[in-house]
């Protein structure tokens, strides 16, 4: 027959209230602003740079 042991003896020690590093949550914006711009693909499915991408001189 299996025995079920509680992990509280280990997990409880890492709770923020026991570590004393908790703080009130930061206030959040009511509405998150949308990101501007777009994503530009610079590599193909194999990971190689596309011909239109300028290569660095390094």
TrEMBL record:
InterPro entries: Fltp. CDD domains: Flattop. It holds the Pfam family CFAP126. PANTHER family: PROTEIN FLATTOP. Microtubule inner protein (MIP) part of the dynein-decorated doublet microtubules (DMTs) in cilia axoneme. Acts as a regulator of cilium basal body docking and positioning in mono- and multiciliated cells. Regulates basal body docking and cilia formation in multiciliated lung cells. Regulates kinocilium positioning and stereocilia bundle morphogenesis in the inner ear. Belongs to the Flattop family. This is Protein Flattop. The lineage of its organism: Eukaryota, Metazoa, Chordata, Craniata, Vertebrata.
């Amino acid at each position: 027959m299996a025995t079920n042991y509680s992990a509280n003896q280990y997990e409880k020690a890492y709770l923020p209230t026991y570590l004393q590093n908790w703080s009130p949550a930061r206030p959040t914006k009511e509405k998150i602003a949308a990101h501007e711009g777009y994503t530009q693909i610079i590599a193909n499915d194999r990971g190689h740079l596309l011909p239109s991408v300028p290569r660095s001189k390094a």
